[in-house]
Amino acid sequence: QVQLVESGGGLVQAGGSLTLSCEASGGIFMIAVMGWYRQAPGKQREMVATIDNGGGPNYADSVKGRFTISRDNAKNTVYLQMSSVKPEDTAVYYCTGQIYFSPTKWDDLWGQGTQVTVSS
To answer: Cβ(89)–Cβ(82) under 8 Å?
Structure first.
């Protein structure tokens, strides 16, 4: 059974930095797109950043220039480097991956989430 496990969340002051990690493990054939989403209290879950298998990133306008997404395909791990964080970045951050179990069978899976709190 494939699992995605996030780590690295916590409390950080505004203007500071934080790095999130997410490792996928289990019966993985390959992973196509990996990404990070977030959900703040009372708000819908929104895309933060995604990265394809070739390393091409895509960012939400609200984090462009501040966050960097990267991945290590050998480790089935995706990272989110957060810098110049703002109080509005406070949310539960979820990792997601388009996981292939075989060349033709895949599913979109999610991690359990990690809390990021930015204090002003």
So the answer is: yes
